[in-house]
Every structure is written in structure tokens, then in C-alpha cells.
Design goal:
Blueprint: H1 10-20, H2 24-35, H3 37-44, H4 47-52, H5 56-59, H6 64-78, H7 84-98, H8 117-125, H9 129-149, H10 151-161, H11 166-182, H12 184-188, H13 192-200, H14 202-219
């Protein structure tokens, strides 16, 4: 399985060096350590990196993938989800969503966040075997980010119109990840354990994203 946290840009490396290194020798030593995936994982858990993510001077050129990984790795762990690959996956999907005009649902004709489950089921029913896998995975991502980042909107919509609240979409997201887990492509890609953890940990992940979203709103 691809682990984006092990493929750092020059700006990512510079951020790590500037945050952790005290001498030129330290900067060289950090680069040597980052070559080893296990050592890199330990370094990326360093509290100083998490704290530095709140300092615009240091994070101006930091990739969104690494920024989200450092932030989410910490907050997920706080809620008992101690899984680097899971934090890596969610961070990558969130970074991709930030750059995508279609906002996480490339297989649907709608350009709005998918609020009506019938549209999801319609697309899945007409999907081919391999396409169904990507539909389920995309749906899981979509509902995770929708319930985590936009929970206040969903709650207000529920109160005003009697529409489904976050819990409804949370169940859809967990089920979508479970369906992706059970697909043959999950076994081929070595992602069975990842999707299983995404499904079982969905409520914790949603809560963590909601916490981060509140912090980002206050900072903006």
C-alpha cells in the first residue's frame, strides 16, 4: 500500500529540518533518518512538528498531505485510533479534496455534496465490479468529510427540515468502507485492514475531524 508520508517534498523536508534541527549536523542527520520508513514515522510523531503546524512562517510551503497527516495523526491518537496508515490515507484524501472542484464525488453528475443517499445507491447499482470498489471507497471518504467537517450544517438542516443528521450519514460512511473492505480489489491492493479500521473507527474519525474543523474556523 502506498504511504504518502514516506514521499516528502523538498519543502516538507525543509519544514522538518527547520523545526527539529539545532545545528547543520542535525539537519544532515535528519535527512539520513528520514530515508528509513520506521525512523521517519517516529520523527513525524514528534510533538514539535505538531506544534509548528500552528506557525504560518514554517508551514507556508508545507504540502497539504504532510500538514494534514501531522495534525490528524495526533488527534486520531488522542481518540484511541493509533494507526499511521489510516491517518496517512485520510490526510491524502483530504488534501486531494482541497484541490478538487468536484469535492470527492467524481463518479456523480452532481456538483454539490451528496446529501441524498438515493444518488449513491443509484450509482453503485449501475457500477461494474471494479468501479463499485472505487464508488464505495469514495462514498466512505465523502461521508467522513461531510459529517466531520460540516456537522453544524447537517445539524441545522436536520432542525429546519427534518432532514437526516450526521448519525445517518455516519452509518452510510461506515457501511461504504465495509463494502470496500469486502471487495476483491481491497485484497489485491492490501487495503482490507485499512478499510476495516476506517469502518469500525468511523465515529472517532468523524469526531476528530469535527475538532480540527472547529480549530480551523477559529483560526480563519
Amino acid at each position: 500500500m502506498h504511504r504518502s508520508r514516506h514521499f516528502l517534498s523538498e519543502d516538507d523536508l525543509a519544514f522538518i529540518q527547520e523545526t527539529l534541527a539545532k545545528t547543520p549536523a542535525d539537519r544532515d542527520a535528519l535527512l539520513e533518518l528520514l530515508i528509513d520508513p520506521d525512523e521517519a514515522d517516529k520523527l513525524l510523531d514528534h510533538p514539535a512538528l505538531f506544534n509548528a503546524c500552528d506557525r504560518p512562517r514554517l508551514t507556508g510551503n508545507l504540502s497539504l498531505r504532510l500538514f494534514f497527516y501531522i495534525r490528524l495523526r495526533k488527534v486520531f491518537s488522542t481518540l484511541g485510533v493509533d494507526d499511521r496508515d489510516l491517518a496517512d490515507y485520510v490526510a491524502c484524501q483530504l488534501a486531494e479534496a482541497a484541490h478538487r472542484d468536484r469535492w470527492l464525488f467524481p463518479f456523480s453528475q452532481t456538483r454539490e455534496p451528496m446529501l441524498y443517499a438515493i444518488e449513491y445507491f443509484r450509482d453503485v447499482e449501475t457500477a461494474s465490479g471494479s468501479q463499485a470498489f472505487f464508488l464505495h471507497a469514495s462514498a466512505g471518504n465523502h461521508y467522513l468529510f461531510m459529517t466531520g467537517l460540516f456537522a453544524p450544517f447537517l445539524e441545522k438542516r436536520k432542525a429546519r427540515r427534518g432532514a437526516p443528521g450526521p448519525a445517518f450519514y455516519e452509518s452510510l460512511g461506515a457501511r461504504s468502507y465495509a463494502k470496500a473492505r469486502d471487495h476483491r480489489l481491497a485484497r489485491e491492493y492490501g487495503m482490507v485492514e485499512l478499510f476495516d479500521h476506517l469502518s469500525s473507527s468511523f465515529p472517532h474519525l468523524r469526531a476528530a475531524l469535527a475538532t480540527e474543523a472547529n480549530l480551523w474556523r477559529k483560526a480563519s
